[in-house]
Structures are given as C-alpha cells and as structure tokens.
Specification:
By secondary structure, this protein is an alpha+beta fold. The protein has one domain: Glutaredoxin (3-Layer(aba) Sandwich). The chain has helices at residues 12-23, 40-50, 63-68, 76-85, 107-112, and strands spanning 3-7, 28-32, 94-96, 101-103. α1 links the parallel β1 and β2 (28-32). The protein is globular.
C-alpha cells in the first residue's frame, strides 16, 4: 500500500515526516495540496480515517482562518469549502494509509503510525 502525504514543501514538519517515511522505506505519494487542490472527498477521507473533527485539521493562526472561519457559525461543509478555497488553513502534514489518517506534526505520531 502506498501512503499519501499532504505536503507543503516550505513546511519543516512536512520535511521531517517525508524523511521519516523515506528512512523507514515506506512507499508514499506526495500531494502538494497548495498546487493540486484538495477535494471535498479528500477532506472527508481524512476526517473519517483519522477519527478527526473538522476543527482538528484547521491551522487557526493562518490569516485565512482568522478572516473566513473564526467567530463565524459555519457548518462542516462550509468549512470544507473554505479549506478548498484557502488550502493554507489545512493542518499539515497529513499522512493517509488504507485505513488510517494522522496529522504527523511530531516524531511520536510518526512512530505510532
């Protein structure tokens, strides 16, 4: 099974996750979600496989979050639409396997995955 990693090449945590996967001889596909837009189906897959809420996958310090989501009473589908329009608000890196997804922001979660 080839893993998918939602990746931002400028992100140090993404680079650490990629290096970890390479070091452990994992097959993976890099998805630069800033260049190849993420879809509603992709986001739903992340939420379902990771047992995550929509709030778990948001980067709340991003200006786009502050402007378009914070202090607004948006539904999950509306927030997903905002992620599609403003992908920088998506937490990263996210790694997905056949049946699991994690936000791989630290070594511990990478090792557990």
């Amino acid at each position: 099974m080839t893993l998918k990693i939602y990746f931002n090449p400028q992100c140090s945590k993404c680079k650490i996750a990629k290096n970890h996967l390479e070091k452990n001889n994992c097959k993976f596909q890099i998805i630069n979600y800033l260049e190849k837009p993420i879809t509603k189906k992709d986001i739903k897959e992340i939420l379902q496989k990771g047992s995550l809420t929509i709030n778990d996958i948001l980067r709340k310090n991003e200006p786009e979050y502050q402007e378009h989501i914070k202090s607004k009473n948006l539904s999950e589908n509306q927030i997903i639409e905002m992620i599609i329009k403003h992908p920088r608000i998506l937490q990263r890196p996210i790694i997905i396997s056949k049946d699991k997804a994690i936000i791989a922001r630290d070594e511990k979660s990478l090792k557990q995955f």
